[in-house]
Amino acid sequence: MAAQSIPSPPPHQSQSSPPTPASMQFESRPAISLQQPSNKKGSSKSSKLFKRFRSVFRSFPIITPMCKIPVTLHGNRPQDNHIHGGTRMTGTLFGYRKARVNLAIQENPRCLPILVLELAITTGKLLQDMGLGLVRIALECEKRPTEKTKILDEPIWTLFCNGKKSGYGVKREPTDEDLMVMQTLHPVSMGAGVIPSEAKENPDGELTYMRANFERVINSRDSETYYMMNPDGNSGPELSIFFVRIG
């Protein structure tokens, strides 16, 4: 997928803006103009639980899976680059090359994300493996018959990359830094590249991203799949993300 340059965002006009955290310094901080998604509801009652899971998750080691299964790139591509019954969504993988990758799902690039997941795989490794061929990410959690939690509201997942257990994935509320990334990328419908940063050097490397259209297929209340769609059916990288509750 060809790299796409990001236009420098307009400077923030406020004189009293707090300083940008050293962990993610943008060339300038654009005002957030992202819209609420159509199905957005109030804040989740379990947001405190998400924070606790995330705190524990941070103590886990980063896993470097070997996602190198030989595949035929065209074997699983849907006809006409569209899946019957699917819903078109925007998916973004982003993060510092040596740090954990984040996955954000939006209704479109102009909306706030409906889902942000932090995965125990480095950004550089995942993007590298995608360049080698088909990557399948499976996120599994235990099914609890007595609860009515929506599948995308589950707080923690067991992560598999091409069948190999690769740690965990944790859902979290979008941080200010996540929203800055989404705002900076809002003119981009698909592409990959590096987001400019004020910091001259960062121990975790450059802040990179890959954005594409995904088809969301709801198989049941306990299973959803996101298929990355390549423009014009070309032979670019392929990614499928499976959410499933088992038990």
TrEMBL record:
InterPro entries: MIZ1-like_pln. Residues 1-47 are annotated as: Disordered. Residues 38-47 have a biased composition (Low complexity). One of its GO terms (biological process) is hydrotropism. It comes from the Eukaryota. PANTHER family: EXPRESSED PROTEIN (PTHR31696:SF73), PROTEIN MIZU-KUSSEI 1 (PTHR31696). This is NADPH-dependent diflavin oxidoreductase 1.
